[in-house]
Amino acid sequence: MSFLRFAARRVAEMAATLLAASFVVFGAMYLAPGSPASFLLSGRSASPEALAAINAQYHLDDPFFVRYLSWLGDIVQGDFGRSITYRTDVSRLLADRLPTTLLLVLMALVVVAVLGLVLGWIAAVRGGRTDSAVLVGTTLAVGTPSFVAAVLLQGLFAVNLGWFPSSGSGEGFLDRVWHLTLPAIALALYLIGMLARVTRSAMTDALDSEHVTVARSRGVPERQVIRRHVFRNSLGTVLTTGGLIVSTLLVCTILVETAFSIGGVGQLLELSTTTKDFPTVQAISLIIVALFMAVNLIVDLVLPLVDPRITLGTRSSSA
């Protein structure tokens, strides 16, 4: 199968899955108790005429499939609807908050990639006490939820030592990076441990492989053996966790943004869910699903280039 055909098939599969996900995202909100009208009324009684006006304004009295098709058509055109809570376009809310969340996720992803790969590499190559120390450290990291890490880091480095801000997202790029450093570390801690363990396991298996033994017997320098024959052959296993890492970052950012009072999409999702702001929750949920699927698509396309042993379509067909 050619690369272009494989890429086209995966994009088509992604579009079909995203369509099914949009139906689930749209329908799930209407299964929850209560309604947007009850929030808008704030517990006050309303005349049938006022309630009918609210339902008509937000199309709450239209049949379900009519609402879904209308919503889907607007989404395709980039219109996510109007926020019930903030009384403004959801697109504007996302435009104001999405850059902060994306920067936070990107910073956390860099921390995860660097520390996770380095710790896994060191543990596999050195072994012995170093390996044991890395295993203990990663066990503690994996066992620490993001919100617990957020509270601990906030208390130590923000409140007690005053090295970093305890809340907010800052203004300007450098100030924003400074404000998001602790949240990024809290967000990344669990995934550092997970990636380090995956990297260590993959490299340990590669070290025991036959081609590594042959390379060493031919006098290939050890650094070159580790870099070309061990680490490179482990990248396939490491990359397959990419989708899981990104999805975990996107989900856990809700807790971290709330803990640090960061005005990002995660905190917006938490507030919108509480107030049953249907358009905002649906838009954010669909964006998270789309980002997760896009990452998996990129991983599927990159894997055969990184590891020639993986043929096009092997991973997707086995999954």
From TrEMBL:
The chain crosses the membrane at residues 102-122, 134-157, 177-196, 237-263, 283-306. Keywords: Cell membrane, Membrane, Transmembrane, Transmembrane helix, Transport. InterPro entries: BPD_transp_1_N (IPR045621), MetI-like (IPR000515), MetI-like_sf (IPR035906). It comes from the Bacteria. Coiled coil: none annotated. It is a multi-pass membrane protein. The keyword Transmembrane helix applies. This is ABC transporter permease. It comes from Streptomyces gardneri.
